[in-house]
Specification:
This protein has 350 residues and is α/β, with parallel strands linked by helices. It has 14 helices and 10 strands. Helix 4 runs antiparallel to helix 5 and helix 8 packs parallel to helix 9. It binds guanosine-5'-triphosphate (GTP) and magnesium ion (MG). Guanosine-5'-triphosphate binds next to helix 8.
Length: 350
């Protein structure tokens, strides 16, 4: 898991940078014991395939239907394909680019029949996903935990994602602290504490209405001497269009950096896949405000709009770290482009 840190890693001990590497170093962290992901691979793939079934129905199965009995790729077929791509929330610009590349291949006679077109589409889509999937080299401070700040609009699944992440990290033997910096919504910190209990990790919270920056400040003070490996900070849901709320996020970020230079080491924006194109403007505005370093796309299980993944990868240079495919603890998947495309294009029922 946490493939964004996985490239060079082995286990939790990698959290400790080498001696003499300066005040900071780029050391990777993992949230899963080696080998565990392989063991769970087949089971998780089925879950993912299941989770993507609605998207597959409105996207890949429609393409299949479009090709039914049609061998020739003509203008009419491409028009119908355009409609399907748009309906799957792949986005206007990405759709046009895909169609243009397809037309180009048709002109070059590189696509013999409809089946070849489907294969080419799959490859082009994988290309977009891989392109945006640069592994991040996170800068870890020598003597402090890895701090992940989680943000997003109301109800996208921030707190749930934090709970699931805490579970992932804990499974990998890492010591996790949750921070309830959502002091705005009633019951927000209780919700986080329920997750804390469920996963078995500590939660730092203050009274409702407290300044979120000061909650974070105190929490980092608490975390530092107690050898926490990972600190997950929950923030209040906020509209990306509300300037003062975005300013508050900047302040929280500044406070973290003051307490632990370089923190937050990951700014994880949570987007709800069911919102389709709106997720794009959320990503843009949050990124403008605080330089988002990773995305988590939730609720892919409940939507036919899974094409948004393709659109996001095409529009942004921000890697998707995780996808949420259900409400349970283990329903957060590392985003793996190959696996995603295979699940999306899976043959057979649904
Ligand atoms: N089906 C499904 N539901 C999800 C997923 N992730 C979160 N949810 C549900 O979405 C709802 C909102 O989740 P929260 O975690 O409370 O969202 P939030 O962003 O913290 O909300 P606020 O703090 O109010 O802004 C809950 O009912 C979650 O169970 C997912 O991947 N799939
Ligand atoms: Mg919340």
């Amino acid at each position: 898991m946490l493939s964004w840190f996985k490239k060079k890693l082995g286990g939790a001990q990698d959290l400790q940078p080498e001696q003499g590497a300066g005040s900071e170093t780029t050391a990777p962290v993992t949230a899963e014991a080696p080998g565990q992901q392989q063991e769970n691979g087949a089971r998780f793939f089925l879950r993912l395939k299941d989770g993507l079934s609605r998207t597959r129905k409105t996207f890949v199965r429609q393409i299949d239907a479009l090709f039914l009995g049609k061998k020739k790729i003509d203008a009419e077929l491409l028009e119908d394909l355009e409609e399907i791509l748009i309906m799957a929330d792949i986005g206007a610009a990405t759709t046009q680019e895909l169609l243009e590349k397809t037309r180009e291949q048709v002109r070059r006679n590189a696509l013999g029949d409809a089946l070849a077109l489907k294969k080419a589409l799959k490859e082009m889509i994988l290309g977009y996903l891989l392109n945006a999937n640069r592994p991040a080299e996170r800068v870890l401070p020598r003597q402090s935990p890895f701090v992940i700040m989680v943000l997003g609009v109301n109800g996208v699944g921030k707190t749930t994602t934090i709970g699931k992440l805490a579970y992932k990290f804990t499974q990998a033997g890492q010591k996790v602290l949750l921070v309830a910096a959502d002091t705005f919504r009633a019951a927000a910190s209780e919700q986080l504490q329920i997750w804390g209990k469920r996963v078995g990790v500590e939660v730092v919270a203050q009274q409702a209405g407290a300044d979120p920056s000061s909650v974070v400040y105190d929490a980092l003070d608490y975390a530092r001497p107690r050898n926490f490996d990972v600190v997950l900070v929950d923030t209040a849901g906020r509209l990306h269009t509300k300037v003062n709320l975005m300013e508050e996020l900047k302040k929280i970020k500044r406070v973290m950096d003051k307490k632990i230079p370089g923190a937050p080491h990951e700014i994880l924006l949570v987007l709800d896949a069911t919102t389709g194109q709106n997720a794009i403007s959320q990503a843009r505005l949050f990124n403008e405000a605080v330089d988002v370093t990773g995305l988590a796309l939730t609720k892919l299980d409940g939507t036919a709009k899974g094409g948004i993944v393709i659109n996001i990868c095409h529009e942004f240079n921000i890697p998707i770290r995780f996808i949420g495919i259900g409400e349970q603890m283990e329903d957060l998947r590392d985003f793996e482009p190959n696996e995603f495309v295979e699940a999306l294009f899976a043959e057979g029922e649904a």
